[in-house]
Amino acid sequence: MKAKQRLFMAAVGAIVTLLGTVSNAPAQAALFDFQFQFNAQETGEPVSGNFVIDDSIPAGRTPDGGTLYGNASPNYNINVGNNVFQGSSNSIVVARNFARPDNSSLSADVIGFDDFRNFNPSNPQFLATFAFAPNSLRSDALSDLQTAPSTALALINTPTGATLSSVNALTKITPVPEPASTLGVLTLCVVGIGSILKRKQQFN
C-alpha cells in the first residue's frame, strides 16, 4: 500500500514540477508570418510569398523618421509565376503617415523589407514595400503589425531587377505557432495522470 502511495505521489509531483517549469519559463520572442499575394499590374503574373517577422529585435530610427528593426526578418519567399526567390536576414522599416512608394504624394502606413546591402538613399528601393491606409497601424512596434488591413499597395523589386506592383494586394499577418505549446504540455500531463491511475488499478 505504501509503495502505491509513493508511486502516485512521485508521479503527481513530477507533473506539478513540469507545469511550474513551463509557467515560470521566460517569455520567448514571438514570430509572425507576413503573407501577400497579387497579380502584377506590369505583367499580369501572379505574385505571392511571405516574410517571417521576429518581434524581439530592438527598434532603431531611420533618418526620415521611420522605425528600423535590423535583421528582424530571418527568411522570406517570393513567388513570381514559376520563379521562386528565397533569402534571409532582411531588416524591417515601419513608418506611419509616411509618403507612399508610388510617388503619388499621398501618405500611408508603410512596412518595408530589405537587407540594405546595396541600398541607394538617393533612389531608395526596398525588396518589398507595403503601403496601407494612414493610421492603420496601432504603432510602429512589430507586435502591433497584426492591426494592418487585409489590402495594401504592394511594390516588389525582385533580386533579378524586375519591379512588380499592385494597388490592391492581399495581405495577412498571423502568429507562427510555438513548437511546444501549453496545450501540448497539458496533454502530456493528462496522459501521465491517466497512466498513474491505470497502474494504481493494476496494484489493487
Automatic annotation (TrEMBL):
Signal peptide: 1-29
Keywords: Signal
InterPro entries on file: Ice-binding_C
Protein name: PEP-CTERM sorting domain-containing protein
Originating organism: Iningainema tapete BLCC-T55
Taxonomic lineage of the native organism: Bacteria, Bacillati, Cyanobacteriota, Cyanophyceae, Nostocales
